[in-house]
Amino acid sequence: HSPQSSSSDEKHDDDHHVVPTAVAEKEGAKVLEVKNADLAVALTSTSLDPLSWASIQLYLILVVAFMGSMSNGFDGQVMGAVNGMNQYLNYFGISGTDAGGGVGTATALIFGIVTAAGSIVGVLLAGPLTDGRLGRRGGMFTGAMIILVGAIVITTARDRSYLLAGRFVLGLGVSITATACPSYVVEMAPPQWRGRLTGLIYIAFYYAGSMLCTGISIATARLSSTTSWRAPLAIQIVPAGILVTFVWFLPESPRWYVSAGKTDKAAEVLAKYHGNGDVNAPLVQLELREFEESIKLDASDKRWWDYSELVNTANARYRTLMMLMMGFFGQWSGNGLGYFLTVLFKNAGVESQERRLVLNFVNTIVSAIGASIGTSLCDTVGRRTMWFWGTFASASTLIIVTVCTALFGENDGNPAGANAAIAFIFLFGFVFSFAYTPLQALVPTECLANNTRAKGMAMYSLAVSCAGLVGNYAGPIALQNIGWKYYIVYVCWDIFECTMIWFFAVETRGRTLEELNDIFESPNPVKASLAKKKIAVMEKGGQVEVMDVENEVV
Predict the structure, then answer these.
(1) Are 305 and 123 in contact (CB under 8 A)?
(2) In what order do the strands lie in the sheet with 17-19?
(3) Which of 72, 96, 193, 407 is spaced 20 to 30 A from 508 at the CA atom?
(4) Which residues contact 256 (CB under 8 A, 6 or more apart)?
(5) Is residue 198 within 8 Å of residue 186, measured between CB atoms?
């Protein structure tokens, strides 16, 4: 057996025969290449119908939970669109009317205030609220209520101070929902569907909202009144309102139930959504056993002020490193330029305000296609592979955007060159969304242990906020002063990201959240996460018999 085998697999080995592949196949066994033998056996014995009523209920539950992420996605798309409207820029006295969008210090402050709120205040509240007596649902409800207040304030803003205050409040709410909603979703999803289900629902609503925002912006931009920019901003009220209305109708996370000492309720939820209604289903029993082994009733998630379990062991520090890598890389891979797409299109030679907004809309559709394809493949290709090659492709496309913009942008008068720059801006959106859109919803929540997931996601939100604060504050100032040369910063950083991902990113596909503990305990977590073994599964007399295949570790 591999020296990297997990403890769960070692226990599994003690109970089953070891046979050659040829013998197993001759006896009619199904030979599988797996990372977690116990999970593979449980999944073989517990087959879920994706069209059953329980599965449809689960989809609807996750849709409601993802309204929090939808609110977060709205912010970037809405502000990116209204930042290209002359009506908005003139109303608030922001420079950049002739530059294709707001740039400079005023825009930097308006974009950066959201991340400042999330990083300074939100992180202090998000973890305790999500781990508290009201559970994940309490965190989602509180965050959504705060988003509602912030969205109403910015929609009705009369001057820049209203706008700044509203965005501060909005950022606070987004920070809380960005902690509670992904934690809830990844804990409710069955392990065999976790990647696709989490990613697809996230994408469906993130990009549906994005396309709605950018599409409405094209129509309202023709208006001369303040409705031109107020209407797109008002859309942010919708997802938060849905979350506030329906969140208390959702079941609580089974992992939270176990952490609160309510194992019977956890078993009911798992049986309904993971076990076809059978509390004795192998998958349900495996998950309950792993929950009880990994969740400590006296852990730091019971103390609102204690974040020590994020760093007090080598295991915890590696998990935190993975979470922070995704937090910073997900904001600094070039996607931060998305807030200023209308400015980028201007740099590439697009003069018309309406055409810039239309291109912004088209870019949203292209990105949605990339994200959908990436999500459909993340349980097949794997998180680590997508992360590395997606980042490498992002760097490659940004290099071409930089060259085309430098040679043919602005006042060069070469439409073919400008169109090439625009095409590769679209291609960048595609490859970035292919990799990062599903992984940003998966990697942090999968890597964090249950006892630290809520507080870890709060720290993830802090990392995202800090990274966004730098990008959103520096971005408009840099674009005003050095123009396209700012893209080179992202290219160099993407190359650094590729190096870090290659040497430190673990593969989380194909394992339960609890089994990942063995990976992070390993002396070489990357090697352990990539190790596989072969097992032979055969049904005899209504029982599933499992045999380890001799000398077949890969």
Answers:
(1) no
(2) 17-19, 543-549, 533-540, 30-34
(3) 72
(4) 135, 136, 187
(5) yes
User: DSSP secondary structure string, 131-150?
Assistant: HSTTHHHHHHHHHHHHHHHH
In angstroms, the CA 360 to CA 348 distance is 13
Token pair 């591999």 is found at 2
Cα–Cα dist 410/215, whole Å: 25
Give the span between the Cα atoms of 19 and 549, in whole angstroms: 5
Cα 148 to chain centroid, rounded: 22
Tokens 């509180």, residue located: 142
Q: In the structure encoding, which two tokens stand for residue 162, read together?
A: 């209203």
What's at 451, amino acid-wise? N
CA distance linking residue 404 with residue 406, whole number of Å: 5
258/544 Cα distance (integer angstroms): 28
**Across-strand partners of 162?**
none
CB neighbour burial string for 495-518, b if at least 16 within 10 angstroms, e if fewer: eebbeebeeebbbbbbbbbbbbbb
In tens digits, the chain (554 residues) has pLDDT values of 333 333 444 444 444 444 455 544 545 545 445 555 667 667 777 788 889 999 999 999 998 998 877 776 666 667 777 877 888 888 888 765 434 444 455 666 666 666 566 667 777 788 788 877 888 999 999 999 999 999 999 999 998 888 888 888 888 888 888 888 888 988 899 988 887 777 776 666 777 777 777 788 888 888 888 999 999 888 889 889 999 999 999 999 998 898 888 999 999 999 999 999 999 998 899 889 888 877 765 455 556 567 788 999 999 999 999 999 999 999 899 886 665 566 667 666 676 777 777 887 888 888 889 988 888 888 788 899 999 999 999 999 999 988 887 887 655 556 777 778 778 888 999 999 999 988 987 899 889 987 788 788 888 888 887 887 777 777 777 877 887 788 899 999 999 999 999 999 999 987 877 778 889 999 999 999 988 766 555 565 555 555 555 544 44
Is the pTM here over 0.85, yes or no? Answer: no
Question: Could you tell me how far CA 553 lies from the centroid of its own chain?
Answer: 32
Q: How far apart are the first and last CA of the chain?
A: 10
Of the candidates 120, 101, 114, 105, the one whose C-alpha atom is nearest the C-alpha of residue 74 is 114
- Give Cα 367 distance to the centre of its chain: 15
Is the separation of the CB atoms in 347 and 485 below 8 Å? no
C-alpha 461/C-alpha 222 separation (Å) is 36
DSSP state, 551? T
- H runs (alpha helix) in 221-262: 227-234, 237-246, 254-259
